[in-house]
Amino acid sequence: KLKVAVLTSGGDSAGMNAAVRAVVKGSILQGCETWIVREGYEGLVRGNTESADTAASREAPQNANLKVYDSDFIANLRFGDGTLLRDGTADFSDGRSLHGRYIVRVGWDDVRGWFSEGGTLIGTARSTTFRTNEGRLKAAYNLIKEGIDALVVCGGDGSLTGADVFRAEWPTLVATLRSEGRISEEQAKYHGHLRIVGLVGSIDNDMSMTDMTIGAPTALHRICEAIDSIHSTALSHSRAFVLEVMGRHCGWLALLAGVSSGADFVFIPERPPQCIPWEDEMCEAIQRQRGVGKRKTIVIVAEGAHDKELNPIRADHVKDVLSERLGLDTRVTTLGHTQRGGRPCAMDRLLPTLQGLDAVDALLEATPETPSYMIGVRENKITRVPLMEAVAMTRSVAQLISEKNFEKAMELRDPEFKE
Ligand code: ADP
User: Fold this and answer.
1) What is the mean pLDDT of residues 31-38?
2) Of 9, 59, 159, 336, which residue is the least packed, with the fewest Cβ within 10 Å?
3) Rounded mean pLDDT of 381-404?
4) Annotated catalytic residue 280
């Protein structure tokens, strides 16, 4: 009987709760015991410093429905890198998720209603300690102490790299814990192999070897809603709007938002404007539209956008060009964190559910010889690809862009790509 734990790590995204729900319910259906790890890898490193009984017997907070426990204590807690620990963890109202316990046994009811919640209820974090061998040794000890032998990580390429490092190092970590006498011979033998599977949670849709990441459809939807709102005022006043959208090194959000909302010009990292200076190319395209009577102008700038020489393209500069050269009344709108989440759209419930269930199957089928898998989706079919291959390819795309080899980067991301 496997003991399965699930954690969310790195940047939050809509649909992470659905992924956790699917892993919890899927593994219970398969006869496993299920656990959640709060606050990503940081929770693994911190582990449980008090027993479940102590945590459960502690007086319940006065307003348990608020989903915030002991907020003064939590507000003062800081991670190793100085960032504040988030509050707002899941409301396990029997007290099992109190702050002395980061690795919490959960049941069917604990994840009820999680579909429609944005972000991640079990918390996420960026953990500097997990990047160190010492931190990972603590994490391994905390897992073995609870008897957990399988782990699902939902996060971006950083989190999945961490998962791969952890699995590769696992035998050495177990040997060290045994030699230090912290675990028994039986424990060392039983935990000789860590089963680990990755789910890609990222609003950017920036992972290679999968068509869609968990959270990207909701982020795209939020951006389209924002453009719709801007559309009416732009049309009324015949204005131009420059929108800066997220996506890190990936232009997927910007490009798809542009296509879905009829934008006039889109700047993405993978295909910078062909002209130098690019200002001429943009102005010409917009003038053409205005010339046939279009009353509004929408320009979208991906946060990682740059010209062919890799000089960043900034929304404020685009605004100045539109105002000064075309005489347009231009405003900049930065959507910021509003695009990260909120209520997940249907796709961000369906995809993580199907992927979470497959993650459990992959854990059950894993052997020391099989690679750690990343669960993806290709042409509407749930897929498994070696986690490290997907991460390596994602990094290669970023590398090719930084070498100004844009076409090769696009080809690597999508082998069927043609200009
Ligand atoms: P994302 O998963 O969204 O890409 P990060 O790149 O910040 O976000 O990674 C999330 C966490 O994954 C990091 O805070 C760290 O704890 C862990 N991690 C990332 N890279 C590594 C690595 N090379 N070794 C160990 N842990 C890593």
Assistant:
1) 91
2) 59
3) 92
4) no
